[in-house]
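Predict structure. Chain length: 146.
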Amino acid sequence: MWAVYPYILRGREKIIDSIQSDKTLDPNLSSIFEIIGYNIQAVDGEIGHISDFIIDGETWAIRYIIIATQNWWLEKIIILSPKWIEQVNWSESKIFTNLSQEEIKHSPEYFEESLLIRDYESTVHQHYNRQGYWVDENAAKKHSVK
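Prediction complete.
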């Protein structure tokens, strides 16, 4: 399946421009960028830091957090769903997940110049043995149609 998502926004400037141009949005949405640079804590140690976000420009849902791992092992970019975040420690600038370093280390690599496609998303979710957000959204649409 090579579905391309036309509403996906990547990169701080694109996202902030879209937020500022849409007068119906809460201007505080841009405050998500305050956590860029926060360390990601796996259950058994740190694994990287937040470098950016992937946001659905139609629904404004944060689809993924982009994680850079170069300070912990070989330079690699991966994505994590915000649903996999357990806790945010504002005073320590840390985000906690219940995933292990090993799971994250072997996650499918994300390439920022690539298009986000459902096949890649499915691979990431299968790697972590997690259900994709689209399953919940499809179920919600079916219930609202009835």
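Summary: Residues 1-6 have pLDDT under 50 and may be disordered.
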